[in-house]
Amino acid sequence: MAVILDIRDLRKSYSDGFEALKGVDLQIEQGEILALLGPNGAGKTTLISTVCGITQATSGQVSVGGHDIVTAFRAARAMIGLVPQEINLEPFEKVINTVQFSRGLFGKPRDDAAIERILRQLSLWDKKDNQIRALSGGMKRRVLIAKALSHEPRLLFLDEPTAGVDVELRKDMWEIVQGLKADGVTIVLTTHYIEEAEAIADRVGVIAKGELLLVEEKASLMARMGQKQLDVQLSEPLETVPEALSKYDLTLCDAGCTLTYAYDTRAERTGITKLLQDVSAAGLVLRDVVTRQSSLEDIFVGLVHDDKGDTA
């Protein structure tokens, strides 16, 4: 696949010395969905704003579809659609007029068929003559996406697209995103809902304090950094882990009724068989044994926590 977004050593600093972006390198291939995760103030919105030409970089290079965002601004910007966090729409305007106006801003000729296709894709066609103020919050977000798609961009930025949206509408939005990908649109998604990234992203990027900590295929990231956890549930609670089990680095949970053991599934030996033998030899009676896989949220929290520790 061709690279549609190429970011090289992108930096953004302010007069007070604050560095919002610290040498970000990122390449995104055409047709993929990248979820960009990070805590508040990590640099997610600054990165998007810089690519879209809203914020001027201090240094570095960015190209979209081979067009430099500075020297070929119009060509680069024409390839980009942006759905911002804030719902900023003219409340008394009709849905269809709002979307058609956005298309005209990019110098695109009127195309009623294209606008109808976008509105139908977003389940907005039956509300095309409604004033924006009459729409629910979820429908207003769909209008924002329709506006961003009105000039038929190939790279779409979704900055917290499901913030404040209920669970049902959030899942509808996921389906919309998958439909856009099927049409060949490349999507960069920032989100605080990590299950959102887990559900729809091809790759995951983690940013903290202006630095891109990693960008990796979601499946390989979870396989590489994820752990499995074994919960040994006991019939009788313990006050402390028995000395005979001290070598296993166990955690006592659930008011002493559960021994928790983390292990790497890629290791040649997990140690589970020997652990269960030693638990039995220690005279402990098992009630149940449960395993669970680390989620993307576990990995994200661990990465950001480690970064805070390193920079403290």
Automatic annotation (TrEMBL):
Record CDD domains? ABC_DR_subfamily_A (cd03230)
Recorded hits in PANTHER family, A to Z, give:
ABC TRANSPORTER ATP-BINDING PROTEIN
Q: Where is the ABC transporter domain?
A: 5-234
A GO MF annotation of the entry reads: ATP binding
Alphabetically list the UniProt keywords.
ATP-binding, Nucleotide-binding, Transport
User: Per the record's keyword annotation, is Cytoplasm included, yes or no?
Assistant: no
Q: What is this protein called?
A: ABC transporter ATP-binding protein
**Protein source organism:** Roseobacter sinensis
What InterPro entries does UniProt report for this protein, alphabetically?
A: AAA+_ATPase (IPR003593), ABC_transporter-like_ATP-bd (IPR003439), ABC_transporter-like_CS (IPR017871), ABC_transporter_ATP-binding (IPR050763), P-loop_NTPase (IPR027417)
Entries under Pfam families matching the protein? ABC_tran (PF00005)
